[in-house]
Amino acid sequence: MAKNKARIRQALRQTHRVLAPVMALPLLITLTTGILFQLAANSGQMSEYLWLLDIHRGHFGQLNLEAIYPLLNGLGLLTLVVTGIAMWLQLPRRQKPNRR
Fold it and tell me: Which candidate in 16, 53, 61, 74 could, as Cys together with 83 as Cys, close a disulfide (CB 3.0–4.6 Å)?
């Protein structure tokens, strides 16, 4: 049983370790282009910055990932959240010192 838990812990950490750097760039691109486009829209200059919306949706010049980019972003983020929470829940709990 203890070996099984250790294997699961190791698999969670490995999945998280591999996926975190891979997902950092697409999530940062989505985040920054969404914020910048919203700022442009609020300032009334939306038409000049429609290219930000294309990138935000996954259209990178000749490479058009619009059909799968949101799905990959969502699944990647969901996997990171699940593995992160699972690792966090498996941390040993510190005992509170008795105060008298």
Answer: 16
